[in-house]
Each structure stands twice: as C-alpha cells, then as structure tokens.
Specification:
Layout (H helix, E strand, L loop, with lengths): L7 H5 L3 H14 L6 H29 L7 H34 L2 H7 L4 H11 L7 H13 L4 H14 L1 H10 L5 H24 L18 H33 L2 H6 L4 H15 L6 H7 L5 H10 L5 H11 L1 H26 L1
Family: Belongs to the UPF0718 family.
Protein name: Permease
GO cellular component, one term: plasma membrane
Length: about 350
C-alpha cells in the first residue's frame, strides 16, 4: 500500500529471458573453486583411459570378428554412420566456432539492443533471422546455446534453432532443384517450417520455465584475453556436442539397417498414415537439411504432403538433433521441446500441404 501503480508488481517481475540472462551473467563473474582444475585434470585422465580401453577393445574385436565386419548389414550401418558424421561435423564446427565468437567478442548489451524485449516481436524476428544464415541443424544447437548465454530470450533463441536449418537460402535452393517440376513445394516448405518455428517459440515464451533449460556453466577468467575465452569455449562445446553427434549418428545408422523397406512401401497409399511415416523416417534417417529434399523427391510412392512432412520435421527433430539438444540443454528440456516441435511441424505440414499441394 505504498502508492505504487497497480501494474508495478507485474511489470517488476523478471521475464524468463531476463532471469536466465542475469543468472548466466552472475555465473560468469564467479571465479572457479580451487579444486576445479584438479577435477578437470582427473576427468581428462579418465577420458584418456576410456579411449585407450576402447581402442584395445576394437583391436580385440577385429581379431575375432573380421568375417562379421564384412557383412552387408554392418557395411551399410558403417556407411550411414560415417556419412552422417562427415556431413554434420563441418556444420557443427561452424556453429560451435560462431557460438564461441559470440561469447568471447560480443558484449551481452549488444543483444539487448538489437533483439526486441517482447516475445511477441522477438520470436518472429528470430525466425526470420534463421532464413538469412546458411547452416545445418547441427550448427543451430550450439549457436542457440550461445545466444541464450548472451542474454537473448530463450523463446527467440529456440525459434532461431528451428528456423535456421529449415528455411535458409541453401535449403530452399536445394528444394527448388530437387522439385524443379513442382516449385510450389519450395513455398510450402518455407511457410510450414517458419510457421511451426514461430508458434513453438510463442508457446515456449508463454509456458516455458527457466529450470527446464540446464545450461552448462562455463567459467572464464575475467582477465583472460578474448582469444583465450574463444578457444576454451570452442573446445568445451565441440568436445561435448561432438560426442552426442556420434551417439545420434550410431542410432540413426542402426535404425536404417533394422527397419525393412517393405514396411514403408506398404503404407505409402494411406494419406495421413503416409505423412506420419515420412515424419518418422525423417527423425530416424537424420539427413542433413541441405540434402533431405533430394531424398524426399526420390520417394515417389508417397504423396506431396507426405514428402513435405519429411522436409519440415527432419530439420527440426531427428536423432542427432535430440542427442545434441540433450547434451546442450538437458533431457528435461528435450522431453518437453521435442513433442511440442513434432506436433507443430505436423499441424503446419497438413495445413500448408492441404492448401498448396
């Protein structure tokens, strides 16, 4: 009853983005505890021993199972696993380097000036920004993490995470080349992907909670040169995200080999079921967004809407993305974000596909 305006209590309440930003800024100012370096040394030693044991196990297995390693199924798995890793790694390195550069060289105040504070405006702005930066979905995860650390509202950063790999110029041009006789597919992909990304961002801004995002602390010496901060940030994120990429690629390779193709062809003539099957295929195959249009165009047994589902769902949600997001933001985040993303991607696929295709 001190005479404050009625709306002052609500206006003084910090937003999700502000609370995250303040938490991360406070964490950056804290010096690491004295035992932190010793724990890091022990972890590195343990990592070396694990790697040595893995090499020894591989050598032992090779000596006993040489004949099985030439089996067609294993060769197919190895080819898919290697292709996913080699295809995704350059984009992952690009995203990690860009995220480290944002951490080291760009002050947090810059983002507060250029990103709208209101989620209603920040989310579509971030979605549109995703259409400018060429990159794979693997690059978008560490980049979104870096944006959140610099004070960008999580809803805007997550919208960028979804839109960048789905509607960037390289992806749209590749889609036009793959569907040269059906150019409306390019517009359908643009509208469905952008719409799904923005709606997910708005929903997250309304219902998302700070404790759903488990951001890993990165302690930097406040007096360290910027290039040292850049190097440490890049090495930390690359080692962490790279491991989850390998796990996701291994899972995708396994499912590619295990699921019989005859099962897929059987449901191609069922309109709704075929779109759901193509969405599931996009999740399991984990194909880079710059190449998925050519795969979709080759599946001629499926309807245009089913092909659209493959191209909308894949860049937003696949096995390697789930693994990367879990490693970056935690499983509590993935358990909420993945179903929301899948639901919105399918809704916009059916709506846009029904209107344009």
């Amino acid at each position: 009853m001190s005479g404050q305006p009625a709306g002052s209590a609500s206006s003084a309440r910090p937003s999700l983005g502000d609370s995250l930003a303040s938490d991360f800024e406070d964490g950056e100012d804290e010096l690491p505890p004295p035992e932190w370096g010793r724990r890091r040394a022990r972890r590195r030693t343990a990592t070396v021993w694990v790697f040595a044991l893995l090499i020894a196990f591989m050598a032992y297995a090779h000596s006993w199972y040489t004949d099985d390693l030439t089996n067609e199924a294993f060769l197919a798995w190895a080819t898919i696993f290697t292709a996913i890793c080699l295809q995704a790694m350059p984009f992952l390195v690009f995203g990690v380097a860009l995220s480290a550069a944002l951490t080291a060289f760009v002050p947090a105040s810059v983002y507060r000036r250029i990103i709208p504070t209101r989620a209603g405006a920040a989310v579509p702005a971030a979605g549109a920004a995703g259409g400018v930066l060429p990159g794979c979905e693997c690059a978008s995860v560490p980049l979104a993490s870096g944006l959140i650390r610099r004070g960008v509202p999580p809803s805007a950063a997550l919208t960028f995470l979804l839109s960048a790999p789905a509607i960037n110029p390289v992806v749209l041009v590749a889609t036009g080349v793959a569907f040269a006789d059906q150019l409306e597919m390019v517009l359908a992909r643009l509208l469905a992907s952008f719409g799904a990304a923005v709606v997910v961002g708005w929903i997250w801004a309304r219902f998302g909670k700070t404790n759903w995002l488990r951001m890993r602390d990165q302690h930097h010496d406040p007096d360290a040169p910027k290039w040292v901060v850049f190097r440490d940030s890049m090495l930390h994120d690359l080692m962490h995200a790279g491991g989850y990429l390998v796990v996701g690629a291994a899972a995708a390779g396994t499912l590619n080999v295990v699921v019989p193709r005859e099962w897929i062809i059987t449901v191609a003539d069922l309109p709704v079921i075929s779109a759901l099957v193509m969405a599931a295929l996009a999740i399991l195959l984990s194909i880079c967004s710059e190449a998925d249009a050519f795969v979709a165009a080759s599946l001629t047994d499926f309807s245009p809407t089913a092909m659209l589902a493959f191209m909308v769902v894949g860049p937003m949600l696949d096995l390697k993305l789930i693994a990367l997001q879990a490693g970056t933001f935690g499983w509590r985040f993935v358990c909420r974000f993945a179903p929301l993303t899948l639901g919105m991607a399918l809704v916009f696929t059916f709506v846009i596909g029904g209107l344009l295709l």
